[in-house]
């Protein structure tokens, strides 16, 4: 997985501020929580939720055999 500063999935264009396709787990931390999510394209994401809001701090590429990546920003 790689660190990210993007505001949308680089593989399919889904906005990071939108609802994740699937929440895999949530873990409470001292400052908020960490969420592991999966995007609709299959990309695994680690999200930090704290006083600063929600942000994707790491993500993988889509799982092999998942939906193909689309170029540009998706309008969802």
UniProtKB/TrEMBL annotation:
Residue span of region Disordered = 55-76
Low complexity biased stretches:
58-76
Stated name of the protein: Uncharacterized protein
Q: Which organism is it from?
A: Streptomyces violarus
The upper taxonomy is:
Bacteria, Bacillati, Actinomycetota, Actinomycetes, Kitasatosporales
């Amino acid at each position: 997985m790689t660190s990210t500063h993007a505001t949308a999935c680089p593989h399919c264009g889904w906005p990071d501020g939108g609802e994740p396709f699937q929440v895999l787990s949530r873990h409470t931390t001292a400052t908020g929580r960490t969420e592991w999510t999966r995007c609709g394209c299959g990309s695994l994401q680690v999200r930090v939720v704290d006083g600063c809001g929600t942000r994707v701090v790491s993500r993988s590429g889509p799982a092999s055999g998942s939906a193909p990546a689309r170029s540009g920003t998706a309008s969802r």
